[in-house]
Amino acid sequence: MVTACQIIDHLGGVARGRQLTAFGYTRKRLADEVARGEIIRIRPGVFATASAPPSVRLAAGHGGALTCARALRHHGVWVLEDDERLHVWMGPTGRVHHERCRCVPHYRPGRMSLGVADVEHALIHSYACHGDEFFFCAFESAWNKRLIGAAARSRIRAALPASARWLVDFAHRDSESGLESLVRLRLHLVGIECAAQVVVPGVGRVDFVIEGRVILEADGVQNHDGPSMRHKDLKRDAAASPLGYESLHFDYAMIVHQWHTVLASIRAALARARG
What own/partner pairs with CB < 8 Å and gap ≥ 24 does 249-254 have? Predict the structure, then answer.
């Protein structure tokens, strides 16, 4: 027989008691499984499994769904920064089931289910909380991972302020990392256009080519760390040099936290290429 734990896991790790009654579970059977430690009663009428992340159980205990950065990360979306505080989607008129809590409640339209907000709503909520850069990187990541289709992208665009809808129009699905999305957006905002994911004969695919002369690589730790990857990067740079390219490499910390240094280096390389 299917257990309440299996049903709740199938529903995302959190479920209301009335959802479980559809599978033949009575209050007594649920109470028995809680007593045996097979499921957790978060509050009256709401249950979870031990495998549900603590933040998801906490959001459900508050009467809503985890949203913004933590929800996006839960779905596998790249995020620029994590929420320090728990962001909970309460639906348009939800009632908070807690006191003296530092969570950030979101009273926004849409059909909210306890647990974790879907990617579409988490992206919409994240714009209001985190702004242009966070939203753009997460949006491109979700698109690249096929988590939002054309209809969802249209709804997300409509839900944004009119002044921010250009971010959806500027986005594309080919960005393979959040760093690449961030670099492309920041360069665009200062009037430097670049081609992304370019295949350079004899070199291979590079993150960006700027004005046909400068190769820019956004080196995430996972993809470019270690002696073997460093050696590969050096070989690619050496192959690019005779072709007239100057190669620049910037890591996560520089791109995110020292952008002024990165931008100065790019502008200097472009000046040399133009000269």
Answer: 249/217, 249/219, 249/224, 250/183, 250/216, 250/217, 250/218, 250/219, 251/219, 251/220, 251/221, 251/224, 252/179, 252/219, 252/220, 252/221
Please report where in the chains the tokens 């702004």 appear, as a residue: 131
Rounded-to-integer distance, Cα 70 and Cα 48, Å:
18
Question: Domain residue spans in the chain?
Answer: 1-52, 56-173, 178-274
pLDDT in tens, 142-168: 999 999 999 999 999 999 999 999 999
pTM of this prediction? 0.86
Q: Where are the alpha helices (DSSP H) in the chain?
A: 4-10, 17-21, 27-35, 54-61, 68-74, 119-144, 150-159, 166-170, 178-189, 221-224, 227-240, 252-257, 259-274
Which of the four CATH numbers 3.40.960.10, 3.90.79.10, 1.10.3080.10, 3.40.718.10 does domain 178-274 have?
A: 3.40.960.10
Q: What mean pLDDT is predicted for residues 97-115?
A: 80
φ, ψ for residue 80, nearest 5 deg: -70, -35
Residue 184 near residue 175, CB atoms below 8 Å: yes
Give the pLDDT of residue 97.
Answer: 58
Q: Which of the two residues, 73 and 229, has the higher pLDDT score?
A: 73
Separation in Å, CA 189 to CA 173, 184, 263: 19, 9, 12
For residue 139, how far is the Cα from the chain centroid?
Answer: 7
% of the chain at pLDDT higher than 90: 45
